[in-house]
UniProtKB/TrEMBL annotation:
<dbReference type="GO" id="GO:0005886">
    <property type="term" value="C:plasma membrane"/>
</dbReference>
<keyword id="KW-0966">Cell projection</keyword>
<dbReference type="InterPro" id="IPR036429">
    <property type="entry name" value="SpoA-like_sf"/>
</dbReference>
<keyword id="KW-1003">Cell membrane</keyword>
<keyword id="KW-0283">Flagellar rotation</keyword>
<dbReference type="InterPro" id="IPR028976">
    <property type="entry name" value="CheC-like_sf"/>
</dbReference>
<dbReference type="GO" id="GO:0071978">
    <property type="term" value="P:bacterial-type flagellum-dependent swarming motility"/>
</dbReference>
<keyword id="KW-0145">Chemotaxis</keyword>
<comment type="similarity">
    <text>Belongs to the FliM family.</text>
</comment>
<dbReference type="Pfam" id="PF01052">
    <property type="entry name" value="FliMN_C"/>
</dbReference>
<dbReference type="InterPro" id="IPR001543">
    <property type="entry name" value="FliN-like_C"/>
</dbReference>
<dbReference type="GO" id="GO:0003774">
    <property type="term" value="F:cytoskeletal motor activity"/>
</dbReference>
<keyword id="KW-0282">Flagellum</keyword>
<feature type="domain" description="Flagellar motor switch protein FliN-like C-terminal">
    <location>
        <begin position="255"/>
        <end position="325"/>
    </location>
</feature>
<keyword id="KW-0472">Membrane</keyword>
<dbReference type="Pfam" id="PF02154">
    <property type="entry name" value="FliM"/>
</dbReference>
<keyword id="KW-0975">Bacterial flagellum</keyword>
């Protein structure tokens, strides 16, 4: 608990008030006791810790960056999306907070149970559609009279964005999001009970000159199986990476086994003049600088890796590895 440090003048004034009877010491004790009582609303139970909320926020910060890149490419205009807030509220409060007529997408996120809601502010949704149709990105709010063509265009755009949601959540769980419903009236949606806790992620969104919010509603039932993975310990230990390492190592080893490398053994080297080279004849002998008692060097892709000695194996010339050349991977070509 944070403590307030009083100045000397404040201390003197407090002592003076106590001595003169203007302030009662028992009254101070009672006020201190009253401060410890906090009002708690059981209808608004907090089912996620601050640590877990921070993890959800990190996931959707990554999602916002991916979505910014995706919509910028699709709409060919300035797009900026960022996380504004992450809160846990009753489902009923979320429904009341969004407009009576808006753009609602309901996604299933197999293998997780339940469904999540994406609420696109009409200003944003119509700006997207206007850009798709070759316009400047102007926004016209006429949600109640969407045509079949407009609904199809928006649905196709939102379905394409699902890969970004899948990638953002891949660090915690592999999901397969599918757009199941497209709705405009939130009163027709009853995903969970009114008092069920949901996490609402609000994204500030700017598309061209239009701006608005994208709200993501994630019920507790969806996150319940992966709540342990939302803790800071999971992010620090990265257990999913540890569990997948043996399989990754095995696949990597198989790939390396198929790799082809250039293997050469240097018998020795010598330096002669160009004139001597031009006048070489049959049976001439070139003396190498390699002693027969000194091990040869085996090069892998022009880098010295091993000391070897020459010999034969099954009537074929071969070499036997004697020792590794330390620091050989640092040698220049």
């Amino acid at each position: 608990m944070a403590e307030e440090v009083l100045s000397q003048n404040e201390i003197d004034a407090l002592l003076s008030a106590l001595s003169s009877g203007e302030m009662d010491a028992n009254q101070l004790k009672q006020e201190e006791k009253d401060k410890r009582i906090r009002i708690y609303d059981f209808k608004r139970a907090l089912r996620f810790s601050k640590d877990q909320i921070r993890s959800i926020s990190r996931i959707h910060e990554n999602f916002a960056r991916l979505l910014t890149t995706f919509f910028s490419a699709q709409l060919r205009t300035y797009v900026h999306i960022s996380v504004a807030s992450v809160d846990q509220v009753p489902y009923e409060e979320f429904i009341r907070s969004i407009p009576t007529m808006t753009i609602l997408n309901i996604y299933s996120v197999s293998p997780l149970n339940g469904r999540i809601i994406f609420e696109f502010n009409p200003n944003i949704a119509y700006a997207m559609m206007d850009r798709l149709l070759g316009g400047k990105g102007n926004s016209i709010n006429k949600v109640e009279s969407l045509t079949e063509i407009e609904t199809t265009l928006m649905t196709q755009l939102f379905e394409k964005a699902l890969d970004n949601l899948q990638e953002a959540w891949s660090s915690v769980v592999e999901i397969d999001p599918v757009l199941e419903e497209f709705e405009v009236n939130p009163q027709f949606l009853q995903l969970v009970s009114p008092n069920e806790t949901v996490v609402v992620v609000s994204l500030n969104t700017t598309i061209g000159e239009s701006s608005g919010m994208i709200n993501i509603c994630i019920p507790h039932v969806v996150l319940e199986p992966i709540i342990p993975k939302l803790s800071v310990h999971y992010w620090m230990q990265n257990e999913s990476t540890k569990e997948s390492k043996p399989e990754e190592y095995e696949n990597l080893a198989k790939s390396i086994e198929k790799a082809v490398v250039d293997l050469r053994v240097i018998l020795g080297e010598s330096t002669i003049s160009m004139n001597e080279l031009l006048h070489l004849n049959e049976n001439d002998v070139i003396q190498l600088n390699q002693s027969i008692d000194t091990p040869l060097k085996l090069n892998i892709d022009k880098q010295q890796k091993f000391h070897v000695q020459p010999g034969k194996r099954r009537n074929k010339i071969a070499v036997q590895v004697i020792e590794e050349i330390k620091g050989g991977n640092e040698d220049d070509e």
